[in-house]
Amino acid sequence: MLGKFFQKPGKEESERVPPGQHLAKGFPVLTYGETPQVSAEEWEFRVWGLAKSATFSWSDFMALPQHEFTADFHCVTRWSKLDVKWTGIKVTDFMGLIELDPKAAQIMEHCYGGYTTNISLEDFMREENFFAFKVFGENLPSEHGGPMRLVVPHLYAWKSAKWINGLEFLAAEELGFWERNGYHRRGEPWAEERYSNAFGF
Hints:
Number of helices: 6
Shape: globular
Radius of gyration: 17 Å
């Protein structure tokens, strides 16, 4: 399995690959449950909780500045892919549209298909985070989270929620789907924050 689909990082790559990870030769797809099929025309994005409630269309997002991003991608299932090329919209540009309550400190990411994952406002607001709608120059396919996903390069990839369609702003941390089922609250790859200590890992 290692030789066919994955490989150990070479000397030049080893400093970019977190502990316990191998390099993927392709771009693996891991999905829990059915893959949502949502067109750009029907896609919408909601904001609520400790923020002024708002709903954004695909065209609202496309009106924001678009950028090319190159970022490494680390999955908790022990594979990494370096230099993934995305097209998307900076989180910080989108957040310029949001009226946020000063008490907001945590976020629940909501997605088509009912998936959720939590992230702190501090982790979310980093300059390198973005909403992606293209990968390697092509429209983001549904199996990789299309039409839109969040990308948070400094955390394990389950925090880069696929099929994202909403942000719920919270005062205190609440756990999302995987976090309630044993994954770490934060998921920092270099610290190998894979699983929750509460589950005995």
